[in-house]
Amino acid sequence: MALAHLTSPLVSIVNSTLGTFGGVNRVACSEFYGVQTSPRDCMAAIRQMPSGDTPIVYTFSGYDRATRLPQYYQSGDCMVQIELAGPQLPSTIGLIPNDLKSMATGVLETCTKKRDYYIGGFLAGDLGPIRQWISSEQGDLDKPFPPSTAFPTISVSTAQPDYLSPGDYDPAMAQMLAQFIFETARRYSPTSGLGDLLRKRAIRLVRKEGEMQPRGKRVAWWERPGQGPRLLRPGEAAVNATEVTEEGEGGGQTAKRTKRRKRVVVDED
Questions:
Q1: Is 223:205 a contact under the CB 8 Å cutoff?
Q2: What is the tens place of the pLDDT at every residue in 205-221?
Q3: Cis peptide bond N-terminal to 70, omega within 30
Q4: Among residues 102, 137, 198, 222, which is most buried (max CB within 10 A)?
């Protein structure tokens, strides 16, 4: 299957480098995340995010909202959400505040500020570990993933009543990951057993992309094609059931989740 089959008129790919997350970042710009999104509101939301080069250790439970993922920051009608994505999440993760602000600014500059777009989007950062895993012989999509393959996402959108979790549910993620695998598969001859295995794995992700949507039923990219909405991760039901606690215009609030419109993808290497 050619890579051309992975794209649609709504998808375009560009390459760039972003912050200290280094060489493997991907940005997807999509109408789902907002149309005529206000760059001024989004810049104000980003300014609310913590700053500094010292990692903050985030968890997925506990009482300290400042260090519990997911997080969101809101100003006016723009919201920035920080989440962690992937089939298997670690119990804690250290993220550098300035890196997260750089990710959010990357989405703002790529999607929201561009005259052709003025829409929202998301960035999936630090994709190197998951790229390496799914492009290897042992990276079976049906087997447990190492927690080290989890990756942070930043979404910039119009204000939402729930968490978007684009790294799990946006079809652009299935497309991005399939491209990673196809790139590795090209190194092997058509008769290579590993090359054939990788091509089948990538085609499965392409098929799964067609079943996904940014909102609605929660269909994750790692599920088998034809499989229904996934079961929640341990502890996630409690997060989903937690109502939003408003604190002014943002300030690192945590909230409930749900999920999912047209999209443009942008790719950052």
A1: no
A2: 999 998 988 766 789 99
A3: yes
A4: 198
